[in-house]
Protein 1
Amino acid sequence: MADPVATTRQGPARVRDYMTANPETLEASQSLLDAVLLLKRKEVRHIPILENGLLAGVLSDRDIARCAPSMLLPLPAQEYNRVFEETLIGKVMTHPPITTIAPEASLAEAVGLLFRDRLGCLPVVVGTKLVGIITVNDMLRALYDILAPIPSQPASRQ
């Protein structure tokens, strides 16, 4: 049986093989409403947040849910919306990011960080420049690539 280590044609799988390159970002000075709209439009759960072009934090759908007013409170709709319009992302995001990873890091290292720190994503950086994001869903795709049956090759004729 083959060793169940994620590999590519070039060798062991790296973060760069599974990350989302050049992810959508927002600025810490933007509103929570901007974040909610981006999460819905792009169908993602994590947004890297920048300040002056540098990675400053990460905002997740859970961060937004945590600070949203409860629907159980008798709050008028305009008041509920006002919270999202007036709250800045910088007040809600995880700042600074718990950890980051390089695109050349192994998938095993990324899995270790996600598992150890109970994270949903890792920003991928080169120096101080954000180049991507890798999420738990990306790791599931890598696991699928390892475990999915390889289509059988037609027998060669001699």
Protein 2
Amino acid sequence: MSSEPDAQVPLKPFLPSGRAAVVLTGLCLAALGAALYLRYSIIQNSAIGTACEAGEQSFTCELRLAVIVLFVQGVFGGVALIASGVQLYRPNVVAFGISLVFALLGLVLYNTRISALAVALLVLSLARFSPGRR
């Protein structure tokens, strides 16, 4: 009786475990909430914008400036795209989570094109076979 270790063993596609899915859901909800708060309560708030442009030195103004610099430079979408490329090449939960969180931040905070491409790559990565899972 010849038993080969890799004979006809079906490969399984990448899919986060139940525990990882719960953690990812929590991270995504937190990122989405933070992005919505930053966009609508700090960045697009005209009273805060006027005060910050007038020279007010506060944490809110510093945070507002930092977020504006990050989305003007395309950091949210860029990180999401790089992480989703890593996820597509070698699927793992960490790359999936980083890409998902930064894609959500990018979609809400004005990096929509690059973040949408990252989301498309994430969807494609779900069809990839996970390394080591047979």
Protein 3
Amino acid sequence: MATVFTPSAIRRLEALFGVSATTGPSSCRFEISSSDGHGGATRRLALELYGDIRIGRKRGNLVSVYTEAAHLQLHFCSGVVLSEDLGEATFVGEYRGKLSGLIVEKTAGCTLFANVDREILSGDFTQLSPEVMLSGVALSLTEPVLESEKKAPRRRRTGARRSKAAARP
């Protein structure tokens, strides 16, 4: 799986969140905070992105979010959709027709939707219960990323097999 956290993507995330990323050899970190402006509590979260790292026996992209009360991870992230209008980034991964999306807001909010049936993204939202509708609407923004991933050719494994012609001297 190729990294989705390219230097260009990192710059776009920096612009969206209004903070600079701290980068390491295989990761970058955003520290995002927001206050309500009325003397209330300040929300904080840290977003860490790891591109094309080892996850078990495979390689993939990992998204981690740390808050004061939670730690969330999305393994095998295959794309990210930025919405300047909503002030959020949606990180998405798909496995066998099920989606997981981790949404990070520039106001230091975070939402996780996991194991969502892909079919509800393009269905009639009015036919869904309110509890289910929210995940469908939120993750429907990721459809262009998911479609481009389907159309992209799969990488061939190198060195796995040699043809008979290649094996001859």
